[in-house]
Amino acid sequence: MHPPRRSLLFVLAVVMAAWPALAADLELASENAVRAVLLYNFLSFADLPGNGADQKALHICVAARDPELLAAMERLQERRIRGRTLYAQGFGPDIHCDAIYIDSRARWQAMSEGAGAPRALTVGFYPGFVDDGGIVEVGFQEGRARFDINLAAARRADIRLYPQLLRLARRVLE
Fold it and tell me: What's the pTM?
């Protein structure tokens, strides 16, 4: 066997051994990218409080410990929705958020205790988020993204969701 051929076989063996880890990374990255695109679309089909002409920015806050999710949301930076520029950042108590992405029930409960649910478009990725008072719950079912909407929570936050978005929801709570 020639040395170059042996090197090629070695490289192929290393790639094949690492394939499950690479596939898992790609799956995670694509799922986070789908979450970011969904959030962008939810914002595109919502009128948020303070959408006046004086506000030029739209702040997305990520309440999650997943750095890849934050990176996926940061890829939305500088995109525009109805004249407002998107900015993504981690969530904090003193940070203004127009939309908040929440990854767990514990984080949502801590966030909504005391003052109540924030006046922002809240999007959660755990089962039961809309039942807990969140506005949009995202889940993956059979490899496809699905979402539910809590219309009453949206109204309490003074957010108007467009009928086109409501028609696409799997479930709408009144």
Answer: 0.78
